[in-house]
Amino acid sequence: MVQTEALLSIRDLSIQYVTRDMGCCRAVNNLSLDLQKGETLGLVGETGAGKTTIARGIMGIVPNPPGRITQGSIFFKGEDLLRKKKKEMRKIRGDKISMIFQDPMTALNPVDTVGEQIEEVLKLHQPGAGKEEIRQKAVQMLETVGIPGERIDEYPHQFSGGMKQRIVIAIALACSPELLIADEPTTALDVTIQAQILELMNKLKGEMNTSMLLITHDLGVVAEMCNRVAIIYAGEVVEIGTARDIFKNRSHPYTQGLFNSLPSVTGEKTKLKPIPGAMPDPSNLPAGCPFAPRCGYACEKCMAEHPELLPVEGEHYVRCWRAAEEEQHGIAAG
Amino acid sequence: MLYYIGKRVLLMIPVLIAVSFLIFSLLYLAPGDPARIILGDDAPESAILEKREELGLDDPFLVQYFRYIYNIVTRFDFGISYATGEPVVKSLLERYPVTIELALCCMFMMIIMGLPIGILSAVKQYSLLDNVSVTIGLVAVSMPNFWLGLVLIMIFSLRLRWLPASGFYGIKYWILPAMTVGFSNAASLLRTTRSAMLECIRQDYVDTARAKGQSEIRIILHHVLGNAWIPILTVIGMTFGRLLGGAIISEQIFSIPGLGKLMIDSINMRDYPMVRGGVLMLAVSFSVMNLLVDILYTFIDPRLKTQFAHRRFRKRAS
């Protein structure tokens, strides 16, 4: 099944980490996602949900060993990335698909100047370009992300955290990629810088007509950036829909729990309601719904049977027996 | 930078003074009368007294010490060897090229064996190659030099008759000593390289390089090794400094006339000026290598360079 209209189309992707003492850790399970050209899709979930592993899977940089993609396919512009040879993947990485990492403090090589690090990706993907041309381009990229071009010969430690993340963005966007994967790009930054970085990313994304997969656990970031949102729990999509669907009509109890654990600015001052319990151990996932042990609405069916991703309304899908039933009742009643 | 180098050179002076004081007092306190050592046990008492006078041995300790330092500083005079009657400097300088040559051979062996295998075993951590090389490394580190030297002589000189067992007349003569010293040092270099590489190999910037589409070999050699140099260079530099003071045991086994053998012979003959000179030579070589390694650090890691700059500005500000 090749989706021609989607830029990126993930089908039944499973990624496992297999270690001798921990056993088999199922980080991503039968995950399917579509990303249209020009849109921003948010991947939201708590720590350990498998968000970063999905990103690495798309990039083809799942650390192996212990990581292994056990099944599925990742279609990028109609071609399956998992069938590509290593050399072909190297041509795609950094050029067509690039990635922004979580922590700008450690994402840059401390012994190379920032110029060298931007030039590195340009040299790899524009082999015809001359030295001077590449340097010009690197200066230009630096200025695009709001850093004076004369700082090109400085080292990462001479920049602040926010500026380092700008440099990481400059590296990621240097070859005008068609898909940008941003793995929690603002988590390590303080709030005022976060807003600047998000604004910059939005602006450049528009200018370069890049699609974006934005990984975050911050629903505020989602609201600001994303067209569509996928809520990830235990390595699978539990709810997916437009940002509006998710914010206005959240159906999955986990999504509701995520929103309940946010402080409200406008409403009454109430205690935050955290989701009780913790994520299931990915090396020992329950047979039924993985969220059932933490879910206030769980019934016998939830414990026994793994729910399918069922439509709620239009593009809005949810992986929950109860929510789907309610929706059907609602439609029947209406 | 120049300021830093200058400061480090000046700091070497107290180190050398301390070493010279220590070695001078130890040998001063050692039993035995130098005059009697020079003239032999049968010499008449009067001749010994005369010799003591001539050598200034009756002067107070500090006077003797300062005379010694004064002669070194002003005339580069380390005294006269009791055994040969020749200036110590002459013997030391005669032997030094041999030691340098041996040290270079050992370094060569150490680096070609230790560095590539260390890199490979970090890249293929927990693989068969890694396990084998780490085990061999452990064995090699624990193997005493004199034993390995003798085993090598037995195999390659006595049994196979491929290589000479002693002397220093050409490349053939260097192979066994260089292997003996190089092997255990290569093992420690291997272990250092491996752990330094492993520390860097999981860093985020390595993933960044992968995400750029960089080739794996360049990632390992540039991004990982580039950040792992500091401990590796420390081991290389320290080993070289130590070897410049003479590879004492293997020089003895292979009868190589380097500084190490000179030192052992001098100690046996209680040739105190020679021992003092040799120890000082070792201290100087070691300090100089130390300084060179420290300067090299700043070329490897730009963060260190700014540290020095900051210190300088702080000084100026206060």
Describe this structure in words.
The complex is a heterodimer of chains A (334) and B (318). By secondary structure, chain A is α/β, with parallel strands linked by helices. Chain A contains 12 helices and 12 strands. The two termini of chain A are 36 Å apart. Chain B has a domain at 94-301: MetI-like fold (Orthogonal Bundle). In chain B, helix 5 (88-123) packs antiparallel against helix 10 and helix 5 packs parallel to helix 13 (272-300). The longest helix of chain B is centred in the N-terminal third of the chain and has 36 residues, at 88-123. Chain B is flat, with a radius of gyration of 24 Å. The two termini of chain B are 20 Å apart. Chains A and B meet through helix 2, helix 4 and helix 6 of A and helix 9, helix 10 and helix 14 of B.
Number of helical segments with 4 or more residues of chain B: 14
- What is the straight-line distance between the termini of chain B? 20 Å
- Uncertain spans of chain B, ≥5 residues at pLDDT below 50? none
How does the major sheet of chain A shape up? 8 strands, mixed
- Strand order, sheet with most strands of chain A: 6-7-8-3-9-10-12-11
Blueprint of the fold:
The complex is a heterodimer of chains A (334) and B (318).
Chain A: E1 6-19, E2 23-36, E3 40-44, H1 51-59, E4 67-76, E5 79-80, H2 86-92, E6 97-100, H3 104-107, H4 114-125, H5 131-144, H6 161-173, E7 179-183, H7 191-208, E8 211-216, H8 219-225, E9 228-233, E10 236-242, H9 243-248, H10 253-260, H11 300-304, E11 310-313, E12 316-318, H12 321-333
Helix pairs in contact in A: 4-5, 4-6, 5-6, 6-7
Chain B: H1 2-29, H2 34-39, H3 45-55, H4 61-75, H5 88-123, H6 128-142, H7 145-159, H8 171-201, H9 204-211, H10 216-244, H11 248-253, H12 259-268, H13 272-300, H14 302-317
Helix pairs in contact in B: 1-13, 5-6, 5-8, 5-10, 5-13, 6-8, 7-8, 8-10, 9-10, 10-13, 12-13, 13-14
